[in-house]
Write a structure and sequence with these properties.
Elements lengths: L2 H19 L68 E5 L5 E5 L9 E6 L3 E6 L9 E6 L3 E6 L12 E3 L3 E3 L25 E5 L41 E3 L3 H7 L15 E3 L38 E4 L7 H4 L4 E2 L22 H4 L8 E7 L1
Parallel strand pairs: 11-14
Antiparallel strand pairs: 1-2, 3-4, 5-6, 7-8, 9-14, 10-14, 11-12, 12-13
Length: 376
C-alpha cells in the first residue's frame, strides 16, 4: 500500500472515532493536505435460514409412584402429629407408606356392671348399668362378671287360707283361698266356716254375661263387694270365687258341699240371692234328670242340664221365688221369668221370650248377693 493511502485511512478512522465518542472539539483541516477519496467497500450479504434445526432432547416422563391426593401425607413420617384427627375415640398413627391410620379406641373396662362409651371430645367413660327390669316379682342385682341377674321373688305369707302369687306391677299378693272361698277374702253367706268349710256365698258384681256354662276368670279374680272391683267391670261370675273354688254347678253340687243344703245361707243379709250354674226347662223346674231331649220351654221334671236348658237361675238366699222342690232341692230360690223375682243390679234382659236368663244374666253392682262358691 502507498504511504499516502495509508495516511488517509488513518485519518478517516480517527474522525470516525472522534465522532462516535461525541467529541466536541472542531476538527481543523489543513488546506495543504490533499483529500483522498476512499472507495466504499461492499460487505457480503449472508442469507439467514428460515428455520434452525435444534437437535431433539429426550425428557424423562414424571414418575407414577409419587403420593396421590388420597395416599396420605408423607410428612407424618417426620412429624406424626400431622395424623391427629382431634378425636379422642381413635388411636392415630403414621404408616410406613406415609398414610395416616385411625384405629378405634377400646373402652371396655372389664366390668359387666358398667356401660362403656366413647365421645370424640371426651374419650372413654362408663355409666352404671340399669338392671331394674321394672317387675316387682324379681330381685334385681348386678354381678361384675355376669352382668344383670333377676332372681324370682318368693311370695309366702305362711297363711294356709291365702294363695301366694306375685304380680309384676303389684308385687306379692295373697288372695283368700280354701279358708274363705271368696275372691275378696270375706264370706257373705254360709258364714260359719266350721260348719260349712267347703261352700261359701260370695257377694259382688260381674259384667261378662252368663252363668249356665263354665268360664275362666277375666279380671284376675278381682271381683267381690269387698275387693278392688265391686261392680265387677270386666269380670265373669268365676271372678267372685277364690282360687281353688268354682261357682257351684248344680243342685247336686250344693248338696255335696253343704250338710244342710241352703240352710246355711240364712245368715246372709236380707234381700240377697246367691246363684249357681243350675238351669231348667221352665216353669221353675231344675234340669236335674237324665232326659237330654228337653228344651228351655218344656216345663217338666226329669230333664238333663244341657245347652238347650237355659231357662231361669237357681240358688240360695233370702231373695227370689221358690222353685219346684221336686226337681230343685236343696236349692230354694230362683229368678222367675226375666229375673222379675230378683232386684237390681240383677239383669236378665236380652231375650224377650224369657227362655235364656242363665245365658244372659249380668250383675253390674255389689248389692243383692252374688254366687255360691264350692271348693274344687
Amino acid at each position: 500500500m502507498r504511504a499516502a493511502s495509508r495516511h488517509g485511512l488513518l485519518c478517516a478512522a480517527a474522525l470516525a472515532a472522534l465522532s462516535s465518542c461525541g467529541a466536541r472539539t472542531a476538527l481543523r483541516i489543513d488546506p495543504d493536505v490533499p483529500v483522498i477519496d476512499v472507495p466504499a467497500v461492499d460487505a457480503p450479504v449472508v442469507d439467514a435460514p428460515d428455520t434452525i434445526d435444534v437437535p431433539a432432547v429426550d425428557v424423562p416422563a414424571p414418575p407414577t409412584d409419587l403420593p396421590g391426593p388420597d395416599s396420605g401425607d408423607p410428612g407424618c413420617l417426620v412429624d406424626p402429629s400431622r395424623c391427629d384427627d382431634r378425636d379422642l375415640c381413635t388411636v392415630d398413627s403414621c404408616l410406613d407408606d406415609g398414610r395416616c391410620a385411625h384405629a378405634p379406641v377400646a373402652c371396655d373396662d372389664g366390668d359387666a356392671c358398667t356401660d362403656d362409651r366413647c365421645e370424640p371430645a371426651r374419650g372413654c367413660f362408663a355409666t352404671t348399668t340399669d338392671c331394674d327390669d321394672r317387675s316387682l316379682c324379681t330381685d334385681d342385682r348386678c354381678d361384675r362378671a355376669l352382668g344383670c341377674l333377676h332372681a324370682v321373688v318368693t311370695c309366702d305369707d305362711r297363711d294356709p287360707c291365702t294363695a301366694n302369687r306375685c304380680e309384676p306391677a303389684r308385687g306379692c299378693v295373697f288372695p283368700a283361698t280354701d279358708c274363705g272361698g271368696c275372691a275378696d277374702g270375706l264370706r257373705d253367706a254360709f258364714l260359719v266356716r266350721a260348719s260349712h268349710p267347703v261352700i261359701a256365698g260370695c257377694a259382688g258384681g260381674f259384667t261378662n254375661a252368663g252363668l249356665s256354662r263354665e268360664s275362666s276368670p277375666t279380671c284376675a279374680r278381682g271381683a267381690g263387694d269387698d275387693g278392688p272391683n265391686p261392680t265387677g267391670s270386666g269380670c265373669s261370675a268365676t271372678d267372685l270365687c277364690a282360687p281353688g273354688w268354682h261357682v257351684c254347678r248344680s243342685a247336686q253340687d250344693v248338696a255335696a258341699h253343704s250338710p244342710d243344703g241352703c240352710a246355711g245361707a240364712r245368715d246372709a243379709a236380707a234381700g240377697t240371692f246367691y246363684a249357681t250354674r243350675q238351669t231348667g226347662p221352665g216353669c221353675g223346674h231344675c234340669a236335674t234328670g237324665a232326659d237330654a231331649t228337653c228344651g228351655s220351654n218344656d216345663c217338666r221334671t226329669g230333664c238333663a242340664q244341657t245347652d238347650r236348658t237355659s231357662n231361669d237361675i237357681f240358688g240360695c238366699g233370702t231373695l227370689g221365688d221358690s222353685p219346684q222342690a221336686s226337681s230343685c232341692g236343696p236349692l230354694d230360690r230362683f229368678s222367675q221369668n226375666l229375673c222379675t223375682a230378683l232386684r237390681a243390679p240383677w239383669r236378665c234382659d236380652g231375650d224377650p221370650g224369657g227362655l235364656r236368663e242363665s245365658d244372659l244374666v249380668v250383675k253390674p253392682g255389689p248389692e243383692a248377693g252374688g254366687v255360691l262358691c264350692c271348693l274344687d
